Q: What sequence folds into this?
């Protein structure tokens, strides 16, 4: 190489595997002690191929970890009322310990209303106002899975966040916004960037920790990465392409998550860990 350095990769697949093994051990213990296996209900609206694939992956990962899953598939045309009723029934069903409503639902549906039908103790995907508030206040509760996975990755690689400038690109309710709040809770100085941000490049260039969560393939150029930065690519785009131009970013970053194999597997690992924790609580094991 011509004097440039190459970032160390943050191995989400490896860490997710270890978290999943722990979840599987706890799931087996819960099943042995109570006669009931932890159970995650997945709710999918419509047939978007990417969503179908993600939900299938989540269910397969559950099965491998000894977590049962119950699949609810609803037509794209479902009304907000019918979706809320379905989720309310799962919230009241003692055989279900966690509920995941796959985002996005169709534009005619009030997604917030649907999320809020998830009972707080079953919100293993961390999407309700209750979970968001607990997370923002630094109280115990279930983090939104992708931001929770990002924090575990940062900790695994001993990234010191206090006083660092963390720049979050994207402000969605279950990814960018909570990711920034978690970083704030760890004493980072947080800047949110979004579609109205003026001179995005100038802000990104100041980032000690960069979280890309916009959903636009290779949106962040490597030339905008501050030398020595920690780059977390939370973008999921068709074809497993991240929001960061990986090949150029890795020449400047100190640590970087690959896509695939970075944040994605961590999202699912956190979902499994939180499902097992929810089941343990509901079954009186802890
Ligand atoms: N309520 C809700 N909660 C979510 O957590 C949620 C959601 N809705 N909607 C969609 C996004 C997307 N998402 C991913 C999960 C795993 C990978 C993942 O494991 N990706 C693999 C590659 C996947 C593959 O091999 O196809 C990787 O990055 O290595 C990616 C993306 C969760 N999401």
A:
């Amino acid at each position: 190489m011509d004097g440039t350095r190459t970032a160390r990769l943050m191995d989400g697949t490896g860490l997710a595997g270890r978290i999943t093994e722990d979840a599987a051990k706890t799931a087996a213990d819960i099943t042995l002690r109570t006669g009931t296996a932890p159970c995650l209900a997945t709710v999918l609206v419509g047939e978007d191929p990417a969503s179908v694939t993600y939900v299938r992956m989540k269910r397969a990962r559950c099965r491998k970890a000894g977590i049962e899953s119950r699949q609810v598939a609803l037509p794209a045309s479902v009304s907000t009322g019918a979706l809320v009723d379905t989720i309310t029934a799962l919230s009241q069903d003692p055989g279900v310990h966690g509920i995941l409503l796959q985002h996005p639902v169709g534009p005619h549906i009030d997604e917030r209303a649907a999320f809020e039908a998830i009972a707080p103790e079953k919100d293993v995907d961390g999407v309700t106002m209750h979970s968001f508030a607990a997370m923002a206040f630094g109280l115990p509760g279930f983090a939104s899975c992708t931001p929770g996975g990002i924090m575990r990755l940062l900790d695994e690689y001993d990234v010191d966040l206090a006083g660092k400038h963390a720049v979050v690109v994207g402000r969605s309710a279950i990814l960018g916004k909570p990711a920034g709040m978690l970083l704030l809770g760890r004493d980072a100085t947080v800047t949110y960037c979004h579609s109205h941000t003026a001179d995005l490049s100038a802000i990104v260039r100041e980032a000690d920790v960069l979280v890309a969560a916009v959903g636009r393939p290779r949106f962040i150029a490597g030339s905008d990465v501050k030398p020595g930065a920690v780059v977390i690519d939370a973008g999921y785009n068709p074809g497993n392409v991240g929001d960061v131009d990986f090949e150029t970013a890795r020449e400047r970053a100190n640590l970087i998550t690959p896509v695939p194999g970075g944040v994605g597997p961590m999202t699912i690992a956190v979902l499994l860990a939180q499902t097992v924790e929810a089941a343990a609580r509901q079954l009186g094991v802890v």
